[in-house]
Design brief:
Layout: E1 5-10, H1 13-21, E2 30-33, E3 40-43, H2 45-48, H3 58-64, E4 69-71, H4 75-92, E5 96-100, E6 103-107, H5 117-132, E7 136-141, H6 144-154, E8 159-161, H7 167-171, H8 184-192, H9 198-202, H10 206-213, H11 216-224, E9 240-251, H12 254-275, E10 281-288, E11 293-299, H13 306-320, E12 327-335, H14 355-370
Parallel strand pairs: 2-4, 7-8
Antiparallel strand pairs: 1-6, 1-7, 2-3, 5-6, 9-12, 10-11, 10-12
């Protein structure tokens, strides 16, 4: 059966997250890196026009683009958004692989019999953009290699499909460096043999390639022909669970915020009890009316329970709260999930001796039968 593979890439991911936090960075050359003695972790398209690229020494990048704004970056923020996107994909995709913090492969083989795979991928992309505000691109084709190359032509913030009949015509004019896995050293060696494009590589005798590159020569020729049988390896490691709410109108109603936070914590705790999972971190996110977005994270004590998680979430919220600004969205995440059954009294099914635990179990049974929103605690209601 012909495969249908989608490659998803978050455009200039670290820069895009920094722009969510500070919209003043929009449309400006931005470099995310570890200080002037470090290397570039990510750079905006505006900076790339000056020759700046990832892994370049920051000093060199700044000399190429003196106007660039240098941001040190925050790995916890990047992990947060990566996990949000992973959850969205996890809920939708039949088979997916998370290849890095900002890249995914989806295997949609056979989906065209039920619903158009390209249409499905388009809707997924729209949902990710809507829920995160981050630009995202995808490429669709017959295998992982061609899909990844296709994504490069979909950027920035776009999508592209290369069908089987068009694969070779699409690949042939591209320089050999476009093939994933071919770096500077191999490119230089190929160029020395007058091999500059993928078509040049495809037309090179196999014996010549094997003579110069050993067994790698066989693989180079296969890649030039658009062949790649590598599978999409299912991503099984779900390290977090989250929920968020966007208000119909921007608000600074603190009672409303507390009610929403309470409801979110209860909702997430119920989901984790169902799965027998236990969190080690709690994160609260706030997005303001100007779309600037901030988050705070804390470790959770091993013996903390649901009644303590809610005030802890509120504490994080107030650390983020700016009383001068209207709030557009709030979110809660429970992260670093594991199945260590001794971790939380709250989630522990064996801890059923107290009235509170019995009440929680009874409420869970009602939710199981009639849905998550059927029953909740009074503290999760908002009185107008």
């Amino acid at each position: 059966m012909e495969r249908t593979i989608v490659h998803i890439d978050l455009d200039a991911f670290f820069v895009s997250v920094e722009r969510l936090k500070d919209p003043g960075l929009n449309n400006k050359p931005v470099i995310v890196g570890g200080g002037k003695r470090g290397v570039v972790a990510s750079c905006s398209y505006e900076a790339r026009k000056f020759g700046v690229h990832s892994a370049m020494p920051v000093q060199r990048a700044v000399s190429l683009c003196p106007e660039a704004i240098l941001v040190s970056g925050n790995s916890s923020d990047y992990s947060y958004y990566s996990n949000v996107i992973t959850e969205i994909i996890d809920e939708k995709a039949p088979l997916y692989q998370k290849s890095s913090i900002d890249e995914f492969y989806l295997d949609l083989t056979g989906m065209d019999k039920v619903i158009g795979a390209y249409k499905w991928a388009t809707e997924l992309r729209k949902e990710i953009i809507k829920k995160t505000g981050l630009p995202i691109s995808f490429g669709m084709s017959i295998n992982k290699m061609v899909a990844k190359i296709t994504t490069g032509f979909a950027k920035p913030n776009g999508q592209k499909h290369v069908e089987r009949a068009d694969v070779q015509d699409f690949l042939d004019p591209l320089v050999v460096k476009k093939i994933p896995g071919i770096g500077e050293k191999t490119t230089f060696a190929l160029n020395a043999l007058d091999i500059f494009t993928i078509k040049d590589l495809r037309n090179t005798p196999e014996s010549l390639l094997v003579n110069h590159f050993g067994n790698q020569g066989y693989f180079l020729l296969k890649k030039a022909r658009g062949e790649d049988n590598s599978p999409v390896i299912q991503h099984n490691e779900r390290k977090s669970i989250s929920t968020e709410s966007t208000f119909e109108e921007d608000s600074r109603d603190l009672k409303k915020m507390e009610v929403y936070l309470t409801a979110m914590v209860l909702k997430l705790c119920y989901r984790l009890r169902k799965k027998g999972l236990y969190p080690e971190t709690l994160t609260v996110k706030v997005r303001y009316a100007d779309f600037s977005t901030f988050s705070k994270q804390t470790k959770i004590d091993r013996l903390i329970d649901e009644r303590s998680l809610t005030p802890l979430a509120k504490k994080l919220f107030y650390m983020l709260y700016d009383k001068k600004s209207l709030i557009r969205l709030i979110g809660v995440r429970l992260g670093d999930l594991n199945n260590n059954a001794v971790q939380l009294g709250l989630f522990d099914e064996q801890n059923n001796t107290t009235q509170y635990d019995n009440l929680t179990k009874s409420m869970d049974k009602i939710r199981e039968k009639y849905g998550e929103s059927t029953i909740t605690k009074a503290s999760a209601f908002h009185k107008k």
